Description:
The complex is a heterotrimer.
Chain A lengths: L2 H4 L2 H14 L24 E3 L14 H5 L5 E7 L12 E9 L8 H5 L5 E3 L14 E2 L1 H4 L17 H8 L8
Chain B lengths: L1 H22 L3 H21 L3 H26 L11 H23 L9 H4 L4 H11 L1 H22 L5
Chain C lengths: L1 H27 L15 H11 L10 H17 L10 E3 L2 E3 L9 H11 L1 H10 L3 H32 L4 H6 L7 H4 L1 H14 L11 H4 L9 H25 L16 H27 L7 H30 L1
Antiparallel strand pairs in C: 1-2
Helix pairs in contact in C: 1-2, 1-11, 1-12, 2-11, 3-5, 3-11, 5-6, 6-9, 6-13, 9-13, 11-12
Amino acid sequence: MTFWERIYFPAILNGMRITFGHLFRRKTTVQYPEVKREFSDIYRGKHVLKRDDEGRERCTACGLCAVACPAEAITMVAAERKPGEEHLYREEKYATVYEINMLRCIFCGDCEEACPKEAIFLTKEIVKSEYERGKFIYGKAELVEPSDPARRIDISKRQTPEVLAFKKNKKFKHNK
Amino acid sequence: MFTQYIFHFLSIMALFSAVMVLASKKPIHSVLFLTLTFFSIAGHYVLLNAQFLAVVHVIVYAGAIMVLFLFTVMLLNLNHDERSPKPMWVNIMAFIAGGMLMLTLIGIFRGYDIQSAQDPMTTQIGLVKNLGKILYHDYLIPFELSSVLFLTAMVGAVLLGKKEQI
Amino acid sequence: MLASFILVLSLLVAMYSTLIERKVAGWFQDRHGPNRAGPWGLLQPLADGAKLFFKEEFMPLSADKFLYILGPSLTMFIALLTSAAIPWGPDLIINGAAYPLQVADVNIGILYVFAILSIGVYGIMIGGWASNNKYALLGAVRASSQMISYELAMSLSIITIVMMTGSLSMREIVAQQQGFNWNIIYQPLGFLIFLICAFAETNRAPFDLPECETELVGGYHTEYSSMKLGFYLFAEYINMFISGAVMATLFLGGYHFPGLDKLGLSPNVFAFVSFMVLFTKITLFGFIYMWIRWTLPRFRYDQLMKLGWKSLIPLAILNVVVTGVVILLNQ
Lengths: 176, 166, 331
């Protein structure tokens, strides 16, 4: 190092110049309760179990999502559809219990990719904080979307034609 | 009258803390009591109208030397139960030496006429201007010699601090 | 009267320095800083103070009880002492009598300030030792050696001012800097050395080794909680304020500002404006303290000692010699 570098003074002044410049920069803080951060349209938050157009649950409890899940957060119990339940479940087999442990879930979206029935999707909603661990295991009550058409959850941003084409050509690699 | 009270207060504090330097069990407490002694002596200087001496006393003794003492004692972390008991003859020698010092002091103060002492407020010798004039006119050679002495001590300390190759 | 005013002022300034410090830190990092308590976060210091009061008073079981309490009290006490010797403005004229805006015009004002500075380390050392914790002890040991090392260079840099002024009185030093005759113009090196040493003496970054969070977990105040901790933190800001005042007085002309005395203001308004000038200068120093803190990383211990003993002290001695020669030649 030369003498000029060794007295460090120019370097210190330069550093101070840089920090002083930051005083006048635009602040990056998002003032939370008043301003909320914009979520991306394809944000991967809390899951939803979709119903079809007639309000029937799409899920057929095939278990592909559970197999695809890298965090092993999904469990389900399957049951056969009884006569007279056709307005509730679209397929002949359905899930009586469908649980996602939100503490284990890493929100990767693999379940959505694996689903052959377009039943599970990730939404812009975020998982609320709780005081007990047990409350993080979401059952069907929390996951299935309301059947009221006005309160259906829009997932069209996550189900573009490109996504559908990709899913069609994948040939269900988990079944190999 | 007011200064009388302050004088008594400072004297009692100085004597008490000086005794506590010896009496306290923990070395840190001893050091802190010694600092307190220095502060009360600095107070005495102020009473004698020698502010410069008082402040320098605080800077040098309380501010520098005692801090170094404290520093060393903290690093050594002395515990009082680890000290080995001293042999009897050391105690006797210490008693004789201390007794002789006390006798000398008593002798000095017996021969000293208290009434002849000047009123400190009239002498003004402790003020920095007068003190500087005296130090640099009347006592220039001793003053400079003492600074040379300090320089020698510093060089010696540096030499001792260097580990090898002297 | 003036003494209590200055006492309250120091405490108030220290309180709001905590807010300004956090605000400035935020701005330097492209954030807003605290802005929830009151408008622009103006009530934040009150909230912080209330929080400190209601925190649990904790005392380590093996602590030295008396010294543990003495430490922070002493730190606070000593921090508040220095302001007595600083001339805060020209004389106030009330009913024809002049009242100097200085608590005690001692003829050895500079030495008084240095005496207080030199015993300032006791609070830290006592507190650090009394809490019986190795981090606290290390912080205390560091504080003492750092303070002693930098006091030397600091005093040496001041000697040049004393040589030029020919007086140890703060009032006299300020009086000689009337107009734009500031000491910083004649003593830039001395000012720089003093500034660096002031950072070290107030334990501010980049010399905050006695309390560094990363390696000593807070250093000497590791074991402190509640208002005892508050005293330590508070004393640091008071020290910043006072050292800024000392620097403004010694180097930046105190309460003088060029052209201010020619405006023809009435004495009391003039005194007030002069006080505000001094206060602005102190605020400037406060900002520089924070600016440096959020720019430079902390020094390593050996670098600190090297800088103090091998650079600052020789430079300060050189400064003294050069100043002496110049004064001799000008006679």
